[in-house]
Amino acid sequence: METVVIKLSNEQVNDFMKENSSLLGLAQDLARNPENYNLIKIP
User: pTM here?
Assistant: First the structure.
C-alpha cells in the first residue's frame, strides 16, 4: 500500500467545494481525470 498526497490548486479546491463536496466526488474525478492532479508518492 502506498501513501499518495493529492496536491490541489486553489481553483481545484474552489471547484470541488462548489460541485462535489465529498471525498467520493474527488475520488471519482481523480479516477476519470488523473492528468488534472498533482500526485506525490510518499515512500
Answer: 0.55
